[in-house]
Amino acid sequence: MSPASIVVAAAPIGIPISSICQVELCAAGPDAADTWVSAPVYAADAASASRTRDADFNRHPISLCQCQASGSIRVRVRWLAETVESAIVRPLARQVTPEIEGCTITFVLKEAMDVVLEINGSKWKALHLLANKIDSFAPTCDSDDVWYFGPGVNQGPAYGRVMDGVNLVVPSGKTVYLALGAFVTFRLVFINVSNCAVRGPGIIYGPKGGYEVREFGGAIHMSGSTDILVQGVTAVGTTGFSLSAGECRRVRVDGYRAFTSVVNGDGIDFFCSSDIEIENCFLRTSDDCIALYSHRWDWYGDSKNITIKKCVLLSDVAHSINMGTHGNPAEPETTSDVKISDIDILDQDEYQLWYQGCIAINVADENLFIHIRIEDIRIERITRGQLFNLRVMENSQWTTAPGRGIKNVVFKRLSLTTRDSVVINPSLILGYDGKRTIKNIVFEDLKIDDRLIHHNMEKTSWFMASDFVPLFVNEHATGVTYHKS
């Protein structure tokens, strides 16, 4: 076996460097050379919602650092912005314990992974370390089926194909590869194509303009396409949904990273799509991290067989996972067979009560959502919000009719740690009326801190298990049960 190694790329001219911290990396392990390398730390923004200004958010400077590695990684961070009183590495499930000496923080990652180093208890004082596994078979130049972009800004022959300075339309059978240290300032567009990919550890950096609908101002846009792979790439500073897709089939989004700081800055949004896999993603967004919708714009049809797993989600505004809002009242649509598992939610921070819930199934526009399984969800903090929100509803701002219903949802091993939370409002399960109801919602091993919530838990006879969440269930929701395995 070859010894562990670390690969970094020099920062291209013109890409802003963070003044918050400095990072050095070293391969860990008995066969690794004890050689530290400096890694560029890039400046980016996160955002919190303004309650007084319509068109803008409050921006917060954060930092990003990338590398490729085989084996374990030793990380040494010198924090320059302020005195370090405390440091924590999230997600907590990674079980990474930092050591602090003055303003230097060190820790070890057992393998390539994405983590956040949070300083002095504030998510706004954060280094995001994005570590990719070394790909020994990665392309190094263009070929018949590959458009290659190397280190630097727009360093690839295919840049000459970019339309209007911002859109690269990818044809069927083509892979776009972004190498470590590659920054591209255009959007990747997949329209009515098949067997395509964009992959590699490079960065799609803030494409500006070149769209008809503001929500499509992101890094990747798909429509009517099949057999598409998005793997390993990072998008920073986009102006709409970071990745949007409608009427697509057999799409796999693996290891996608997104950082947004604008109004409607969603992470990954799918509309009217089926056979979708979203996995190993890290999303820090200024709106929903992941959203599953029905009809909107020119997209129509049911959605089914959608898997979301092994993701880290930090929604600085709105939900980590949102389902159901948009649809087609004229020809109602159904979303079915959604499985969500092994998710770390780092925070919810949403003032508006309409849009609270780390996980929300808010069904409107005659949508029906059925057969949804949500398991192994770890929520580390709620700055302001709810654990979950299930509603059949009509929202006059975004919808034109109520939904048809929500049926057969299983929550298994959903846990919340309240230690770092601030305002946790009661969760809600609300049917709309006697015909537009919510039925058969099962909670198994629901855990709030160290307490399991179930029908047979220790409590007085007049209390309900839901009171310990806390959770309010209205008269139009039936079959809500709580069990301990």
Write the layout of secondary structure elements.
Layout: E1 5-7, E2 21-28, E3 37-39, E4 41-49, E5 57-70, E6 72-79, E7 87-90, E8 99-101, E9 104-109, E10 114-119, E11 122-133, E12 146-149, E13 152-153, E14 167-169, E15 175-178, E16 182-184, E17 187-191, E18 194-199, E19 203-205, E20 220-223, E21 226-231, E22 234-236, E23 243-246, E24 249-254, E25 257-259, E26 268-271, E27 274-279, E28 282-285, E29 290-293, E30 303-315, E31 321-323, E32 334-348, E33 359-363, E34 368-379, E35 384-385, E36 388-392, E37 405-416, E38 423-424, E39 427-430, E40 438-444, E41 446-448, E42 451-453, E43 471-473, E44 477-483
Parallel strand pairs: 5-11, 12-15, 13-16, 14-17, 15-18, 16-19, 17-20, 18-21, 19-22, 20-23, 21-24, 22-25, 23-26, 24-27, 25-28, 26-29, 27-30, 28-30, 29-31, 30-32, 31-33, 32-34, 33-36, 34-37, 35-38, 36-39, 37-40, 37-41, 39-43, 40-44
Antiparallel strand pairs: 1-5, 2-3, 2-6, 4-5, 6-9, 7-10, 8-9, 10-11, 41-42
Question: In brief, what are we looking at here?
Answer:
Belongs to the glycosyl hydrolase 28 family. InterPro entries: Glyco_hydro_28, Pectin_lyas_fold, Pectin_lyase_fold/virulence. The protein is an all-beta fold.
Unreliable spans: none
Percentage of residues in DSSP E strands: over 45%
CATH fold annotation of the largest domain: Pectate Lyase C-like
Radius of gyration in whole Å, from Cα? Answer: 22 Å
Family: Belongs to the glycosyl hydrolase 28 family.
Subcellular location: Secreted
Keywords: Carbohydrate metabolism, Cell wall biogenesis/degradation, Glycoprotein, Glycosidase, Hydrolase, Polysaccharide degradation, Repeat, Secreted, Signal
Pfam families: Glyco_hydro_28
